[in-house]
Specification:
By secondary structure, the chain is of the alpha+beta class. It has a domain at about 10-185. Helices cover about 50% and strands about 10% of the residues. The chain has helices at about 50-60, 65-70, 115, 155-160, 165-185, 195-205, 205-215, 215-220, 225-235, 235-255, 260-300, and strands at about 10, 25-30, 50, 75, 85-90, 100, 105, 120-125, 135-140, 155. Strand 6 (about 100) and strand 7 form a beta hairpin. Helix 6 (about 195-205) runs antiparallel to helix 10 (about 235-255), helix 7 crosses helix 10 (about 235-255) and helix 9 (about 225-235) crosses helix 10.
Length: about 300
């Protein structure tokens, strides 16, 4: 198979739920060169990339994560005022995948998760109050796709193994959990700050920049990570990505798994208290100034 218009996305339970099924569901599908719809799905793409997709593609193309994000990707809001996602950028001025060739996908061995899943959609759901997500699947049937007419029955589980999805899904699980945690928490977490949104984007998608951040003196002065473990984390993109998910759970949701230097933690708490006190003083001064303006206005009358 070559590409996809469908995207496996984390999804919270909502009023409209597609027909879903488990991995034992038998479908009928095959994509092959020579089929009349060859490359049709790659001509109009809407492909959300997981962090692991970006690792595979940037290594395949021989570019840094920053270069990949600038030249091959487009950020988007997964929900209003929420965490950002990244989509594959189509060819300039059109909707086709830039990796599409007459022979098929030019990056087939490293194609994104969405392309591997098509025509199956992964729906990861997490209900409020649950600690783990539930994976289910739905079938996408687009008018142009003739693969559904191919006489090849296969279960969703078999199809996932055939497309190499088990490893892809496992390595994206931490990212999906972060997104689902934010969605399931909803208003209880409040609107994320600009800094937290930027942190999420860097840690999930810009792995080379995140490596510089983790290797910085400021990071080391706050987090107490043994030298051997730190060297191991920094040496491997995949390991660093998994560490990023762990770091974000702690930074955004307070799930502490990374030891913090006690003195540094105390200093951060004191700085936070000082900032909060400063904001309270500024607010009180503004209220006092507004009250003075009112009194002055009454005096003029």
């Amino acid at each position: 198979m070559t590409g996809a218009a469908a995207t496996p996305m984390p999804a919270a339970a909502g009023p409209v739920v597609p027909e879903t099924f488990g991995a034992d569901r038998r479908i009928q599908f095959r994509c092959r060169k020579g089929i009349a719809c060859w490359n049709a799905c790659c001509s109009n793409i809407d492909i959300t990339l997981t962090p692991y997709d970006i690792l595979r593609l940037k290594d395949r193309l021989g570019v840094s994560s920053g270069e990949f994000l600038r030249n091959f990707a487009v950020p988007f809001e997964m929900e209003k005022d929420g965490m950002a996602g990244v989509k594959l950028k189509p060819v300039e001025g059109a909707t086709a995948c830039r990796f599409m060739t007459p022979e098929g996908c030019a990056v087939y061995e490293d194609r994104p998760t969405a392309c591997r899943y098509y025509p199956v959609a992964l729906l990861s759901m997490r209900k409020q109050g649950e600690s783990t997500e539930r994976d289910s699947y739905a079938l996408v049937k687009e008018p142009h796709c003739l693969g559904h007419l191919e006489p090849r029955p296969i279960t969703v589980g078999e199809y996932r193994r055939e497309q190499g999805l088990e490893a892809y899904d496992e390595l994206a699980r931490g990212w999906r959990q972060l997104v689902l945690k934010k969605k399931s928490a909803g208003p209880t977490l409040g609107k994320p700050s600009k800094a937290s949104l930027q942190l999420f984007f860097m840690a999930c998608y810009d792995i080379d920049r995140f490596r510089v951040f983790v290797a910085s003196e400021a990071f080391g002065s706050l987090y107490d990570i043994p030298e051997g473990e730190m060297s191991q984390v920094l040496a491997d993109d995949t390991g660093l990505m998994l560490f990023a998910f762990r770091f974000l759970r702690q930074a955004l949701f307070g799930e502490v798994t990374i030891r913090v230097h006690p003195a540094a933690a105390h200093e951060r708490i004191e700085r936070a208290r000082a900032r909060a006190a400063g904001r309270e003083r500024e607010a009180a001064e503004r209220r006092a100034a507004q009250q003075d303006d009112v009194y002055e206005g009454l005096g003029e009358e």
